[in-house]
Write the structure tokens for this entry.
Amino acid sequence: MKISSCIVCRIGLWSGIILVVLLLLLTGLRFCRDEPVVYADPVEHFKYGSTGGDRVMGFPKRVFRALPEICGQYLPGKGYASLGMIFEPGHDLPVGMSQRRHMGIDRTFLNCAVCHTSTVRVKADAKPMLVVGMGANTFNLMAFEKFINSCMRDVKFSAEYLVPVIQAQAIQEQGVELSLLDRYVVYPVAITLMRDRVTSLMHRMRFIDAQPDWGPGRVDTFNSAKALFNFSIEQLPHEELLGTADFPTIWNQGKKTSMQLHWDGNNNYVEERNLNAAFGTGATPPSLDHAAMTRIQVWNASATAPAFGKSFPIDPVKVQHGATIYKEYCAACHGASGTDFSGAYVGKVTPLKEIGTDPNRLNSFTPMLAENLGTPYAGTAYRFTHFRKTWGYANAPLDGLWLRAPYLHNGSVPTLWDLLQPVNQRPAHFYRGNDLYDPVKLGFVADVAKDGDKSYFAYDTDKPGNSKAGHTGKAYGTELPDEDKWALIEYLKTF
């Protein structure tokens, strides 16, 4: 009997050990995975693929999707679409949000497309055309950041309120309830960690509370970088604290190698520009997905803008006349054409005293920041070595010009027609965020405050950082007869 009992005890012990090992293996399989959702098509990968920010900064996907339900009072309308984010059929996340299975949970965070994708309507009742690579003219990043921050501080951002919403989503979409582990451990812990992490980040980003609203299509890139480097915002000179500028287009990067990039020309190395952009989406050096970034760089090296002529007619007679005017007034700074970027001053910086545009974006980038930007990848082949302080704004090629409106680096001039007027004749107030296109003046409709239940952002050129000044005078074509201006605009439609 004693021997039999001993055998039973040993069998029980080994069974227990095997059970524990199996549980550890199963737990390890779940919580040790790091698997981004990958797309075979490079454009889909750009729109929804991870750049690595979702590893460290990633929101639990189900929590992110539940926020509009529990914090809807902080949104201007219904859901994330009210912030100008774009939803495509078949996707439960907006364009510019990636998905990655990391540490046992599906995570999502911003990627490059959130700032470089938008929509265009050729007429009021037309289906919006998604354009990948243009500035995100409808997306209000500041409003997004303030929504997330407000929700983190709300009493409803807790497992008590969120888990039932997440549970309801799981039942509705998959027909299954959350597991007990998810309901009572995983999501409560994830919610707490998300609140702490985002609250800490938004404290660093507190400079936005002292700035005028950016409005859709704009960002303060380099003050955000200072926040990530934990600069003491209160101790920075006042003139540095406002650097709002438009989201740029990112087509034809291969042709722009060695040009001075960013609005102020502070870097002349395309790869660094792209890595710095990923840094802005939370993809810090330890988390950056270099394979994903390589795919994006291969794609945008030759990506091109959709042709204006595929959506609207072009007058060939006016084009011929406009080409002559362009060659005389514009080609030296902006390239021989929309595909030929050769020109004596293309990709070079024009001093501020000459160009005369709003100085704030230029002032926001400082020698100290340039020095700090050399530290994130220190000790690796990816270290930034090309950032420099400049004293003006860079002359960019004009590929896809029709989709770059509003114009100037701060988006202070709504149409190309307005840009060709003397400063005092440019609109002092207009509306941003509309994707309805004006093919005559070459820009988005800017004189409509509201369309149904959607309100557009009132842009005031008298506010700091929003000046419409500059790029004016005889050398810039603002003194041309109207006939010549219209011909020039017609030619620029071919870019």
